Amino acid sequence: MNDNNKLLTALLVDDEPLARRGLRLRLKAIGGVEIIGESSNGREAHEQILALQPDVVLLDIQMPTVNGLQLVQLLPPETMPQIVFITAYNQYAVEAFEVNAIDYVLKPIEEHRLRLALERVREKLCSTNLIAQREQLLEAVSNLTQESTQSLQQKLAEGELVSPQFPEKIAIKDAGKTTLVPTCTIDWIDAAGDYMCVHADGKTHVMRITMKALEQQLNPKIFQRIHRSTIVNLKRVGAIDTHTNGEYYLQLNNGERLKMSRSYKTKVQCFL
């Protein structure tokens, strides 16, 4: 572990087979990494990490049953491997990782970014302060999830840890009438004061709800925040216009043009 040229042993954890295949190909191109195991969910990964003791785990955040953040909390600090989080959209998590110097790679994965993450893993493995690093990781993850390890272990034992199920329809109440809007028909959503305007199938539905509460009802693999007051359906984006001031404009298939603020520019990866 004190050799920068040491062959890293790695465990790949992602519920999408194509994502794991992509990781394998990129790791092969980079070299210096031996993949000793793969897992499609956090529960299985927990067992493999304890049994195989890899140097590094390339860990998807969003997975069924036990997600990546929960998995880290369940691992013993004294035997925890280096963790590189893989994320497609969690802006809040990304910002927290940056602040706490925890490494992450955005999807779709770029080889140069993955190479940099592995270089950092090697540097950390050479450090004499691994315990402090792992405690820092646990603290950051605990702050993100707002849940204790003890609580997670109890829920895991009782089978209560499940991925959120996103509704196929959003119920919008207006003047005593409730309209069920299929989420697949939503093009984009924007805020108007205390109300949300849901644009779907050429119609605009108005509902009284916070942006955060509405965002939690939508599948983040399909819907992404591109501005503090705008959510867009990724499948509706037909083109991206780049401006010299660092801002982006998204051209939707229906002709609508939406502004993506600079603070959300990392989300561009989600559209490519």
Characterise the protein shown here.
With 272 residues, the chain is α/β, with parallel strands linked by helices. Helix content is 33%, strand content 30%. Strands 2-1-3-4-5 form a five-stranded parallel beta sheet, sandwiched between helices. The radius of gyration is 20 Å and the shape is globular. The mean pLDDT is 83.
**Total DSSP helices:** 9
* Helix percent band: 25-40%
Largest sheet: 5 strands, parallel
User: Structural class from helices and strands?
Assistant: alpha/beta
Name the beta content range.
Answer: 25-35%
Shape: globular
Q: Mean pLDDT, rounded to whole units?
A: 83
List the helices and strands and how they pair.
Elements: E1 8-13, H1 17-30, E2 33-39, H2 42-52, E3 56-60, H3 68-74, E4 82-87, H4 91-99, E5 104-106, H5 111-125, H6 130-145, H7 149-157, E6 169-174, E7 177-182, E8 186-192, E9 195-200, E10 203-208, H8 211-215, E11 223-227, E12 230-233, E13 237-242, E14 248-252, E15 257-260, H9 268-271
Parallel strand pairs: 1-2, 1-3, 3-4, 4-5
Antiparallel strand pairs: 6-7, 8-9, 8-12, 9-10, 11-12, 13-14, 14-15
